[in-house]
Amino acid sequence: QVQLVESGGGLAQAGGSLRLACAASGSTFSNYAMGWFRQAPGKEREFVAGISWSGANTNVAVSVKGRFTISRDDAKNMAYLQMNSLKPEDTAVYSCAAKFTGRRAVPLNRADYDYWGQGTQVTVSS
Length: 126
Hints:
By secondary structure, this protein is an all-beta fold. The chain has no helices and 11 strands. Helix content is 0%, strand content 50%.
């Protein structure tokens, strides 16, 4: 099992930046692909970005492409989501997720992931 704890959320102005962090514990972090999802009020949880277990492959949603970047630091058991050029529509609860896998492909669906953090609120004001 792996435990995930997010941090770094908060309030930002439109055009600003935030970096979310996801701390993992309880298992070998490098065995897991990592993903970030978000859920806005009244909407379904959606995929934001994912990174393979090796870090060689990443995938980001069209809505955040060019603005958000996912990365990982296996030495620190951390995954990150750098969010630039924030927009009010980025306001949501952001959660990190982990999937135990040896495949190179980045899991894109929430059902693919095995473990989830509690989430961190991101609010972007206009």
